[in-house]
């Protein structure tokens, strides 16, 4: 059975960067370990792990954009 794809959204630090660019923010971990784009679970809208696993619904999703 094929895995469903993750939903990718822009990091809040990128969309709301204000006077500093995303790369200038100290201690900003909104999108870590990803950069500028965050994979979300298509079911729960929670951030996925680097393996595509959702800790809420306990399903795996593909991280291909």
Helix content, binned percent: under 10%
Into how many domains do the coordinates divide? 1
Number of helices: 1
Q: Numbering strands along the chain, what is their spatial order in the largest sheet?
A: 1-2
Strand content is 5-15%
How many strands?
A: 2
Low-confidence stretches: none
Radius of gyration: 13 Å
Morphology call: elongated
> Topology as H/E string?
EHE
Structural class: mainly beta
Biggest sheet, open or closed, and with what strands and sense?
2 strands, antiparallel
State mean pLDDT (0 to 100 scale): 82
Q: How far from one another are the termini? A: 19 Å
Commentary on this structure:
- By secondary structure, the protein is mainly beta.
- It has one domain.
- It is 6% helix and 12% strand.
- The chain has 1 helix and 2 strands, in the order βαβ.
- The chain has one helix spanning 12-15; strands spanning 7-10, 37-40.
- It has a two-stranded antiparallel ribbon with strand order 1-2.
- It is elongated.
- The mean pLDDT is 82.
Entry keywords:
single chain, 65 residues, mainly beta, two-stranded antiparallel ribbon, 1 helix
Summarize the structure.
The protein is mainly beta. The chain has one helix at 12-15; strands spanning 7-10, 37-40. The chain has one domain.
Architecture blueprint of SSEs:
Blueprint: E1 7-10, H1 12-15, E2 37-40
Antiparallel strand pairs: 1-2
